[in-house]
Amino acid sequence: MAFPLEASSITHGIQLAVAPVFLLTAVSGMIGAVAGRLARIIDRARLVEDRARGSTDADWLARSQRELQQLRVRGMLANGCIALLTSCAFLIGVTIIVLFVGETGAAGGIQTGGWAVGSFLLGVVCFLAALLCFLAETVLATRLLDFRVHPPGGGHSA
């Protein structure tokens, strides 16, 4: 079955489909940033595990266990963030396809407006949830920091 495609409808379809592409750019940048954070979390966990294996100091082992538990939570948040961002990208891709197919008339009379709105809004919801995961992970990361200064020799700084 051949679909009659006009140049003006194809042009308009492309124009409609380009707007969500900007969100895809933001999503891909965030995936890169979160993937980098996840790699650093994994590297830190490996370092803490290796140091804990070589230690017999009970205090050090307890601190290591606490840090590893916090790193696990951060890793789960980063993984959740990446899953939400991937879902967002998929849904925005669906939106682009539906907008283009609906505008060019290739949908054969199927109402595509509801699908486009639904997939776009679900994509935005996934993006917002990913931002919340990212915020939670960064808050946890800064809570891990020990802002007290411990100079060599056990003395106190002025």
Quantity of strands, as a count = 0
Share in β-strands? under 5%
- The total number of structural domains is 1
Radius of gyration: 24 Å
Written account of the structure:
- The protein has 158 residues and is mainly α.
- The chain has one domain.
- 79% of the residues lie in helices and 0% in strands.
- It contains 3 helices and no strands.
- Helix 2 packs antiparallel against helix 3.
- The mean pLDDT is 84.
What's the helix and strand layout?
Layout: H1 7-53, H2 58-104, H3 113-143
Helix pairs in contact: 1-2, 2-3
Brief overview, please?
The protein contains three helices and no strands.
For this entry, give a set of tags.
mainly alpha, 158 residues
